[in-house]
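COMPLEX REQUEST
Ligand: nicotinamide-adenine-dinucleotide
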Amino acid sequence: MNIQNIRHVAVIGAGSMGHQIAMLAALGGFSTTLHDIREDALHDARNKLEEIMGKWVSKGKISEADKEAAFNRLSMTTDLQEAAGQADFVIEAVVEKWDVKRDVFQKLDKIAPAHAILATNSSTIVSSLIADATRRPDKVLNMHFFFPPLVMDCVEVVKGEHTSEETAQITMDVCHKINRTAVLLKKEISGFIANRILGKLQQEALFLYENGYADFKDIDLICTKALNHPIGPFALMDLSGIDVGYYVMQQRYRETGDPAHKPPKSIEEKVKAGHLGRKTGRGWYDYTSSEKGVKS
Ligand SMILES: NC(=O)c1ccc[n+]([C@@H]2O[C@H](COP(=O)([O-])OP(=O)(O)OC[C@H]3O[C@@H](n4cnc5c(N)ncnc54)[C@H](O)[C@@H]3O)[C@@H](O)[C@H]2O)c1
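STATUS: Structure written out below.
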């Protein structure tokens, strides 16, 4: 098999990541189906994509005709069979919970054609922890996009020992076709490259905040001014979702048993309070203010 055989792409999970990954696939010329168990998630996905693509057209990034053509290649359904039954390539982007992902892969294995590649967009879970839920471990791997996928030009493609060379190569080619820079990791490691490095930064930022060395806003300020980071670690947690980071920490802690990997108290509190960042209007910062959009 090679990239020429990949025509239909299915994206499973239409949340912050999935809807934009599906749009990338449709823009890249693939017939694409986006699936979610929640009808309202698909509804929101379509609205958000229409808004973003409308902006792309007004900024001259794509033509109206290209936008229309991409939307014509994109369908949405709550029926997993309909989404994956014809798929040559599946990208799973459901909630970062190991048991949910395993369940989805088990179902996909039964539904998707035997030749289909099954990729997970997990932020941290290596595909060997999921591949054995299928009868095609050679066709399972990590394909890790960054938030927001329509903006961030990087994908970590992670090859496990179970993954075939062909699967890794086709996945790299898919990234190329959807206009994303792909980097191949030849061995699995939990969290991959970028999130391992980012995780250390966030861990240190949370340590400094929780121990009263500085306010979180000032830690963000130092990171942007002194380190020239485009965004501070707390603002970044708000952007990508505090719950997403929390699940990643929980998963890492489950895997290592190292107390240093346990989610910090302040993160537990935010998740319990439902203050998950921009998507809920409040996280570290408050986004409900009409004055500035961002209020502490
Ligand atoms: N948000 C980020 O910054 C980011 C970045 C890279 C990777 N990821 C990874 O992408 C995945 C999705 O993250 P997200 O931020 O889009 O989450 P999200 O919570 O925004 O969306 C998850 C979606 O999955 C759906 N879902 C849950 N169970 C399902 C199932 N069994 N079948 C179909 N759909 C189901 C939910 O209804 C929801 O719409 C996670 O594995 C996460 O670690 C997230």
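REMARKS: Residues 39-58 form the longest helix (20 residues). The chain has two domains: 3-185, 194-280.
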